[in-house]
Design a protein that fits this description.
Blueprint: H1 2-19, H2 30-51, H3 58-90, H4 96-127, H5 147-150, H6 163-175, E1 183-188, H7 195-203, H8 206-211, E2 214-221, H9 226-237, H10 242-245, H11 249-260, E3 265-272, H12 275-281, E4 293-298, H13 301-306, E5 310-313, H14 319-331, H15 339-352, H16 356-367, H17 373-384, H18 392-402, H19 406-414, E6 424-425, H20 426-436, H21 447-460, E7 465-469, E8 475-479, H22 482-494, E9 498-501, E10 512-515, H23 524-529, E11 537-540, E12 562-570, E13 586-591, E14 608-613, E15 634-636, E16 655-661, E17 678-683, E18 703-708, E19 726-730, E20 734-735, H24 739-743, E21 750-754, E22 758-759, E23 762-763, E24 775-779, E25 785-786, E26 798-802, E27 822-829, H25 830-846, H26 850-853, E28 856-863
Parallel strand pairs: 1-4, 1-5, 2-3, 3-4, 9-10, 10-11, 11-12, 12-13, 13-14, 14-15, 15-16, 16-17, 17-18, 18-19, 19-21, 20-22, 21-24, 23-25, 24-26, 26-27, 27-28
Antiparallel strand pairs: 6-8, 7-8
Helix pairs in contact: 1-2, 1-3, 2-4, 3-4, 9-11, 14-15, 14-16, 15-17, 16-18, 20-21
């Protein structure tokens, strides 16, 4: 894809040669480098213009191919020469010869792009008669609107036409008297008809939540993995430790069966393709004679029948429901009922055949038109020209991709790297886009902010789905429907930008390598037969691999930027050759042992570094100077291998988990990392008063976690950063009267108090504090009396109480909080559940507006309430 390569090359030229050149570089002609940057911007503008057209001319396609090939070759040559400079500098050698080689390469690249630029001008002259000119191409803003404009309504997903289905299935799950045996209900229908959406609505239905002791959900997929399925189901019941995840399938199956025994459970198996997957896991579900249920979603009737399930056949949307769904999506609640819009709408819907996924993708496409009748007409004409056959839905879905701007096409195709039905963390995809160089940083915005806008744009177009939300309602992870995933993979392969390696396909030289086999794809043999210099990214998604003797990386991967080995269990630190991958920007590892001997500081371009241990008994041993890497933005380590603050100011650093603070650190100087946005602090040993006072200087910090290890006393700082939005305290054992320091924070939205973060029998909040707090979580505390009312938490939306065994009730004054929508209780006494329900009833009587009245009470397990209140036994 020409746009990806040109944008990536432009990022190299501007970041590594103009804005932040390596100190070892000798740049002989800076004016020529600026000229190269300008020419690349012209090429990118041309590609953005041609990318808007769904049917470009043959000349434009040939010119795009020429630009792609020239930019690919130039990128490889420039990065190779830069690599020679960096390696010479690391070895203490003279860099003059290497810099001369880089200069000669840059001269030739400028000449090549001058020739292409002249052909663009010729193309412009040929297009002048059609009213299109390359001179009119201007670099558009990479992000379509700001965050507020692109905000996605994740809480109120547009759902139409499922009311009867929900009522029928909830009745069957909860109220219909059965023989007591375990029953299986199958939602059957075409891909994109709404099976998973319906299952989620039912899974979160209040009656279902109240009825079942345990609810668990797992995505099965086409190529099912029994171990991953078992771990996912266990994780729905209790947090997974590395000890559990390292067990074999038989041990995991036995543990799951024990957890479900004697419990009334609801298990959802989403996207089942074969009966083999069912037979592999169904033995883990005990035949409790208590009304336990299993719900599956499948496209295949025979699978549902072979499982001996009750079939619920999904219906296509009626014309009326289809009209409502498209209009609500296209106009975002502003309904235009003029005859001309209805005419184009109905022409489009005729081809969508009542399939919700196709309707939503078309609605997302039309929403970007902002009411332009010209676009509505063009889309209607395009879909009407499609031949009505079995592939028409696939072609309609492809239109959602074809109408994307060039930068969003690249972002969308990147989802093809992940296996079908993958749950993709939002932060991960954002950091990967940045490492790949496929996005350009905007003025007054970080690259991450721009990438988040791109993700929101794809979600609003219904090309990407929100999968999980964080506790404060932000997007935690996302996924892509498997019918859209097919388009991702197909288009990326067609552009020769991605290669998926599985048991059926061998490695091929592509920019992105997605390994989904049980073997490491890159060997010395394939290095001799393929041009591996084209490879920029390698992801390993296969079954767990133990590389005890094999070498994972080779000199042929010298241009690698992204290496994700998080599913490979490295035994001794990490492969030593990795430190020679000097262009690496993203590195994720799962390992045990020591990394002390590795020269990690050679990775001068590294932006994201993620390291975890796959065995709890073998903590990592890591160098303490990793924060000295000049380009590092995001560092995620385990608490036991925490880092110390750097010796020099590092303005790039945005994310740091974890920072270690000990008795030797008398005064942490957080001015060394002034632009941190997320920080985790782990404290061990005796802590001196005022040790973390300089936290207040982190003027951009939005998220802070503080966890205590072996510490006698923790001293709360007298002030926190004013922009702090999320604060988590863990095992700090603070008295409740010190809560006033936190309550004064002007922007605090989420407060999590875990494992006796605050302790003592009584909390008396002060009025007009916590003015912006939306989410409050308290887990494990000895609090008995909580004297609070609506003035203390005026905009609270969610209250979560877990293992609060001394607290008997929720303050009745919370009934007057207009914004309160959810009270979630986990393993608390039944008296708290009763008080929460009383608050819900009182709230209905307090406010006239239905939006102010709605308050859901959810409880998961109730602590047995013995007369002496001394037993810690739980029912569930």
């Amino acid at each position: 894809m020409a746009f990806v390569v040109v944008t990536s090359l432009l990022e190299i030229v501007e970041q590594q040669l103009i804005i932040q050149p390596n100190p070892s570089l000798i740049l002989y002609n800076k004016e020529m480098i600026v000229m190269l940057s300008q020419k690349l911007r012209v090429l990118r503008a041309f590609l953005m213009g041609s990318g808007k057209k769904t049917n470009g001319s043959c000349g434009e396609e040939m010119l795009e191919a020429e630009i792609r090939d020239a930019a690919t070759e130039a990128e490889g040559e420039i990065e190779s020469k830069l690599g020679q400079v960096y390696l010479a500098a690391n070895r203490g050698e003279d860099v003059v010869v290497a810099c001369q080689g880089l200069h000669q390469t840059l001269v030739q690249v400028v000449r090549d792009f001058e020739a292409i630029e002249s052909r663009i001008l010729t193309q412009n002259a040929n297009n002048a008669s059609r009213g299109s000119s390359t001179n009119d191409f201007r670099e558009e803003s990479f992000m379509v609107g700001g965050l507020s404009e692109n905000a996605v309504e994740t809480e109120n997903e547009i759902v139409v036409g499922f009311d009867h289905d929900v009522e029928e299935i909830v009745y069957r799950l909860v109220f219909l008297k059965q023989s007591g045996k375990r029953e299986v209900i199958a939602l059957v229908g075409e891909g994109g008809i709404g099976k998973t959406t319906l299952a989620k609505i039912i899974f979160e239905h209040p009656s279902v939540i109240d009825h079942f002791h345990i609810r668990a959900w797992v995505v099965v997929s086409r190529e099912h993995n029994l171990k991953e399925m078992l771990i996912s189901l266990l994780n729905c019941i209790a947090p997974i430790t590395s000890e559990i995840s390292n067990k074999d399938e038989a041990q995991l199956a036995e543990q799951l069966c024990k957890r479900l025994m004697s419990q009334r459970y609801l298990i959802v198996l989403d996207n089942v393709w074969t009966t083999t997957a069912w037979h592999a896991i169904q033995q883990c579900f005990p035949h409790n004679a208590n009304g336990s249920r299993i719900m599956i979603t499948t496209r295949i009737n025979n699978v549902a029948r072979d499982i001996n399930s009750h079939l619920h056949i999904m219906k296509y949307q009626s014309l009326r429901n289809s009209q409502e769904l498209l209009s609500r999506k296209a106009f975002r609640g502003r309904f235009y009922s003029t005859p001309i819009y209805e005419y184009f709408r109905d022409r489009i819907l005729l081809q969508c055949r009542g399939l919700p996924l196709a309707i939503l993708v078309m609605g997302g496409l039309l929403a970007t038109a902002k009411g332009s009748l010209e676009v509505w007409r063009e889309v209607a004409d395009t879909v009407e020209l499609m031949t009505r056959d079995d592939k028409i839905i696939s072609r309609i879905l492809s239109l959602g991709f074809e109408y994307l701007p060039s930068h969003l096409k690249a972002c969308f195709l990147y989802f093809g790297i992940f296996p079908e039905d993958s749950d993709v963390p939002a932060k991960k995809i954002i950091n990967l886009w940045g490492a790949e160089g496929i996005l350009k940083q905007e003025k007054n915005k970080s690259l991450e902010e721009g990438a988040e806008n791109c993700l929101l744009d794809l979600i609003n177009r219904n090309l990407v789905q929100v999968n999980k939300l964080s506790i404060d309602g932000r997007i935690k992870s996302c996924k892509i429907h498997d019918r859209l995933h097919e388009i991702c993979v197909r288009e990326a392969k067609r552009e020769n930008i991605m290669c998926v390696i599985d048991e059926k396909h061998d490695p091929q030289a592509s920019r992105w390598i997605s390994c989904q086999s049980s073997h490491w794809p890159i060997t010395r043999a394939c290095c001799g037969t393929h041009n591996c210099n084209k490879i920029h990214s390698i992801f390993y998604f296969g079954k767990y691999l133990y590389p005890s003797k094999c070498r994972l990386v080779y000199p042929c991967l010298k241009l690698l930027r992204v290496l994700d080995l998080s599913l490979i269990k490295c035994l001794h630190g990490m492969p030593s050759e990795i430190v020679d991958l000097i262009h690496l920007k993203y590195l994720a590892l799962s390992t045990i042992g020591s990394l002390y001997k590795l020269q990690l500081l050679k990775l001068q371009n590294l932006q994201t570094f993620i390291v975890s241990s796959w065995m709890e008994d073998y903590p990592l041993q890591l160098q303490c100077n990793i924060l000295d890497l000049p380009q590092l933005k995001h560092l995620r380590l385990e608490k036991r291998c925490s880092q110390y603050l750097p010796s020099l100011v590092r303005e790039n650093l945005q994310t740091l988990y974890w920072l270690k603070v000990t008795s030797l650190d008398r005064n942490q100087n957080f001015r060394m990392v002034p632009n941190l946005k997320e920080l985790g602090i782990y404290i061990e040993g005796e802590l001196l008063s005022g040790c973390v006072e300089s936290l207040v200087h982190l003027r951009l910090l939005e998220k802070l976690k503080i966890e205590i290890g072996r510490v006698e006393q923790f001293y709360l700082p007298t002030a926190f950063p004013s922009k702090l939005k999320k604060l988590t305290l863990h095992s700090t054992y603070l008295p409740w009267h010190e809560m006033g320091i936190i309550g004064k924070l002007p922007n605090l939205e989420v407060l999590k108090l875990k494992d006796f973060a605050f302790c003592g029998p009584e909390w008396n909040p002060i009025g007009w504090e916590f003015q912006d707090l939306k989410v409050l979580l308290i887990a494990h505390t000895n609090l008995k009396r909580w004297n609070a009312n609506f003035q203390h938490f005026p905009v609270l939306e969610r209250l979560i109480l877990r293992y609060c065994w001394d607290l008997k009730k929720v303050p009745i004054g919370f009934a007057k909080i207009r914004t309160l929508k959810l009270i979630e209780l986990d393993s608390c006494y039944s008296s708290i559940v009763t008080s929460a329900n009383q608050i819900s009833s009182a709230k209905i009587l307090s406010f006239h507006s239905m939006s102010d009245r709605t308050l859901h009470v959810r409880h998961f397990g109730t602590k047995v309430e013995w007369p002496n209140n001394e037993s810690s036994e739980e029912e569930s």
